[in-house]
From TrEMBL:
<keyword id="KW-0963">Cytoplasm</keyword>
<dbReference type="GO" id="GO:0042026">
    <property type="term" value="P:protein refolding"/>
</dbReference>
<dbReference type="GO" id="GO:0051082">
    <property type="term" value="F:unfolded protein binding"/>
</dbReference>
<keyword id="KW-1015">Disulfide bond</keyword>
<protein>
    <submittedName>
        <fullName>Molecular chaperone Hsp33</fullName>
    </submittedName>
</protein>
<dbReference type="InterPro" id="IPR023212">
    <property type="entry name" value="Hsp33_helix_hairpin_bin_dom_sf"/>
</dbReference>
<keyword id="KW-0862">Zinc</keyword>
<dbReference type="GO" id="GO:0005737">
    <property type="term" value="C:cytoplasm"/>
</dbReference>
<dbReference type="Pfam" id="PF01430">
    <property type="entry name" value="HSP33"/>
</dbReference>
<keyword id="KW-0676">Redox-active center</keyword>
<dbReference type="InterPro" id="IPR016154">
    <property type="entry name" value="Heat_shock_Hsp33_C"/>
</dbReference>
<dbReference type="GO" id="GO:0044183">
    <property type="term" value="F:protein folding chaperone"/>
</dbReference>
<dbReference type="InterPro" id="IPR016153">
    <property type="entry name" value="Heat_shock_Hsp33_N"/>
</dbReference>
<keyword id="KW-0143">Chaperone</keyword>
<dbReference type="InterPro" id="IPR000397">
    <property type="entry name" value="Heat_shock_Hsp33"/>
</dbReference>
Length: 281
């Protein structure tokens, strides 16, 4: 029931839908840092949303959803792989008061990026235009992709759920989408969080012919590794590595997403310095 994503379509209509619930996959993200409660809710929403969005693109790689602002919440970043491996992180400054999305993300921008393993990357950047994170995503799809979209996000602590209704590309029937989206808005938090997906869809769309596809597992997945950290150290000038070794004799890199720590002792730093010097010749 939890950490599962469900895609569905309406037979005879040019409308598709996605429903997802996150539990352990979300909790692992939220426990990586001591996030204030308002930021926890935004991270939960962003993580849920990127899981929904991952089903709308057909690439081998990742989709990234990023929010930056001049408000107390400086950064929200959520990623999903094509196999629904999720990770997310947030950055904030000072105290985070309880407040609406527009106050926490004042002067913000949103970037939606497609990051295929091969081929050209894509990024769309737009100003935040909406009272909620879901509003901003709906506006992005309407303005940038010309796709009518309705997104509903629900959160209870370290669990979340999301429902997305979207007109199919090139086949938009506005009356059908409008009717299906209005029915989606009647979904209550306790229903989204607790009822079986079949019951949710029947409750909303018992007069429609809904075809539910097999569920897909969702999980926490961080791409960090010792090798990636080592590669990042190799981008530093050799002088910086020598100074690091002379002053500290070691260094530790901590992943922003999962909190995993990678330690490089004096011998490891010496090997990096030698490798940099060999590259220079």
């Amino acid at each position: 029931m939890w950490d599962q994503l469900h895609r569905f379509v309406f037979d005879g209509l040019s409308v598709r839908g996605v429903f997802v619930r996150l539990d352990a996959s979300l909790a692992r993200n939220l426990r990586s840092h001591p996030y204030p409660p308002p930021l926890q809710r935004l991270i939960a929403e962003a993580t849920t949303a990127v899981g929904l969005l991952a089903t709308t693109v057909k690439i081998k790689g990742r989709i990234s959803l990023q929010f930056q602002s001049d408000g107390p919440v400086k950064l929200l970043l959520a990623e999903s792989t094509d196999e629904l491996g999720l990770r997310s992180v947030g950055q904030w400054q000072g105290d985070i008061p309880e407040g609406d999305f527009s106050a926490l993300m004042a002067g913000g921008r949103m970037a939606l990026s497609l990051l295929p393993e091969q081929g050209q990357q894509y990024q769309g950047v737009v100003p935040l235009d909406g009272e909620t994170l879901a509003d901003c995503l709906e506006h992005y799809f309407q303005q940038s992709e010309q796709l009518a979209t309705r997104i509903l996000l629900f959160n209870e602590g370290e669990r979340s759920a999301g429902l997305m209704i979207q007109a199919m590309p090139g086949l938009q029937q506005h009356e059908d989408f409008h009717r299906i989206a209005l029915l989606a808005e009647t979904l209550k938090t306790e229903e989204a969080m607790n009822l079986p997906v079949e019951t949710v869809l029947h409750r909303l769309y018992h007069e429609e012919q809904v075809r539910l596809f097999p569920s897909q597992a969702v999980r926490f997945h961080c791409r960090c590794s010792r090798e990636r950290c080592r590669d990042s150290l190799l981008t530093l000038p050799v002088g910086d590595l020598q100074e690091m070794r002379a002053e500290e004799g070691e260094t530790t890199i901590q992943c922003d997403f999962c909190g995993e720590r990678y330690h490089f002792d004096d011998q490891a730093l010496e090997q990096l310095i030698q490798e940099k010097q060999q590259q220079a010749h």
